[in-house]
Structures are given as structure tokens and as C-alpha cells.
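Could you help me review a protein record that somebody else here produced? Do not assume that whoever made the record got everything right. The record follows directly below this note.
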Amino acid sequence: MTHELLSVEPTILVQDAVQLMDKHNIGALAILSPIQDLLGIFTERDLLRRVIAKKLDPAKTKIEQVMTPKVMVAQASDNAMDLVEVMFREKFRHLPVVDGRKIVGIISLKDFYKCLLQKQL
């Protein structure tokens, strides 16, 4: 899980969000309100399906127009294998993790793969 959570406000431009994702080598950003409520998530898949495929201009499109709103979240105390099952069943690659109402990170399938590989080595 990414413990150094990168988040943006819904008014950021897609172009700026993608540059941030590239700079930090991450596949998803949490979209937070000014009072830090989770509004949604923006992923590489959102970029492909909702921006590029629809020929929207990333320099003029706000994240709030193309993010995935109302995302499912995991609790920090959830069992890791249960989360993997949910992610595969729902076809999620990224899942925000909350502790109570506060978002604390985003877990990705890549995180699970890394963990499995480390245990096998």
C-alpha cells in the first residue's frame, strides 16, 4: 500500500494529475475535497477510457469530470486476502484504504504481487 498518499482536489486538470502520477510512478490518485473527504479515485484506466478514448483534452479537462466517484474502500483492518478477492471480483486494480473516515493509502494489485514475490524468494 502507498503510505505516502498522493491526493489532489477535484479541480486539478487531468494533465497535471497525470504528470504527478508519472513523477511518483503510481497508477492512481485519491481525489479529496478541501476538508479531506474522499470524492473518488483517478486511475490509469480512467485516463484511457474517459479521456483518451473520448478524445478529451487533458489540458482542459478537470479530474472531477473523469474520475471514478463513489469508490469502494477497504478498512485498514481488513484481511489482505479478502481484499484481493474483492479486487479480482470487481475488476479493481486500486482500492483506497481508510481508517475510520480518514484515507490512509491506496492498495494496488501490484502491492500484492510484490508481497507474494518477496515471500517466495
Remarks:
- The domain at 7-120 is CATH 3.10.580.10 (CBS-domain).
- The first strand starts at residue 7 and ends at 8.
- The chain is about 40% helix and 25% strand.
